[in-house]
Amino acid sequence: MEKYLENQYFPRLLLLKKLQKWINRKEIFAIKGPRQSGKTTILKMLESWLIEEKKIKPKNIISVTFEDRDILEKFSLDPKGYVKSFIGERSQERFYFFIDEFHYLENGGQTLKLLYDIFENVKFVITGSSSLELTSKTSKFLVGRVFAFELWQLNFEEFTKVKSEQIYNAYKEKADLVSKFIFEKKDFSVPEKDIFGKDMQKFFEEYAIWGGYPEVIKAQDQETKQTILKNIYDTYISSDIIELLKITDYSRFKTMVGLLSAQIGNLLDYNNLAQDAQSYFKETKHFLSVLEETYVVHLLRPFSTNKTSELKKNPKVYFIDIGLRNYLIRNFQELSLRPDLGSVVENAVFSQLRFRQEDFYSIKYWRTLGKAEVDFILEKKGELIPIEVKYSSFNSPKVSRGFRNFILKYRPRRAIILTKGFWGELRINSTLIKFIPVWYL
Question: 3-state DSSP call for residue 106?
């Protein structure tokens, strides 16, 4: 790891390298993602890199947060004057202006466009916890002027690196084989032995219980972890929902969040959800939209070659962070004791797919009227990769009826079954199926 990052920050180097790559361009950087996923930290990492590696003067890097109401008020009254107060007469020097929690600014898109056009020597970097506020309300003013990035909670790779450098190295070797199989179509021989399998399982099950929020991972005891998750949720409700997005009936909103936490991995019935929350259809759809836009849940759409049919089918619901979901149902028991073990592991797998998705592929699920189902379908440019989650012991490779039906119908070249430690492979016609321990996805 780079010298300026040692012992300071969790390893969020993938996004940092992207920011570094385009730092010399004029476009605004907009970093969006869930609350407490590390957006403030990534700004500090970028600042350290600019100072240590690019030799930028510290006084030429200005960091503010709009959670500070005094700063927000001053900036709102005179944005140009506020920025100018840091620059003075040094118009020939390069400046970097970091604005954390930008979504609190009214008319942010118009304001940022004005500043972008006025200050040729300033690179603006903004962050926000709401896709709705940070993107939808600014994009029409900033077309061609902004690069958007997403920062999620720590994925399992990052989690492993935090926990143990040795286990991370062992993990990375096999995870790279799996990644190349999925994305580069490169076959590999399944390992005969996996001496770190039990260690991987222990880490994965901890991750599936507590999730990937950096502060939760950092905490040393369960009580502290639970308290942090509670604070994340409470802050989200009070700041993002009530204050920012103006949802006044937050009791129904909270009820709906609780109902969704009990339905992960299941098909969502809008009418039943509205009835159980004592809401109505239009409000229910709005609440779900807000939950997606603020990075709490994701509604997974079905795969279908009939696009009209695809739009009509109900989605499945997953939480972006499984730890937050487990807080909502107040269950942090180890996986072996849980009646929802299958759903928890499936949600953890979804998070892994979502965190690395970017523009590589779309994620969907497949289900027929006869209830044959495949958990996840990756699709890119017409190529399909079905993924089934089977967190159980295998003695030999075997596939479910639904998985086999999908393969026979769509004839994908590659397919994956995620297991509880089992490695193997099987061919069905032209489809190569790899059985891979779930933690190496």
Answer: coil
Return phi, psi of residue 174, to 5°: -80, -35
What predicted TM-score, i.e. pTM, was given to this entire model? Answer: 0.89
302 secondary structure, DSSP code: B
All structural domains of the chain: 3-150 (3.40.50.300), 156-440 (no CATH)
What is the Cα gyration radius of the chain? 23
Give the integer Cα–Cα distance in Å for 87 and 275.
Answer: 56
* Residue pair 434/425 in contact by the 8 Å Cβ criterion: yes
Count of CA atoms in the C-beta half-sphere (13 A) of 134: 28
Task: State how far the Cα of 168 lies from the Cα of 146, in Å rounded to an integer.
Answer: 35
C-alpha–C-alpha distance, residues 299 and 313, integer Å:
12
For the stretch 375-425, pLDDT in tens is: 999 998 889 999 999 999 888 999 999 999 999 999 999 999 999 999 999
User: Which residue type occupies 311?
Assistant: L
Q: In terms of Cα–Cα distance, which of 165, 167, 189, 166 is closest to 177?
A: 189
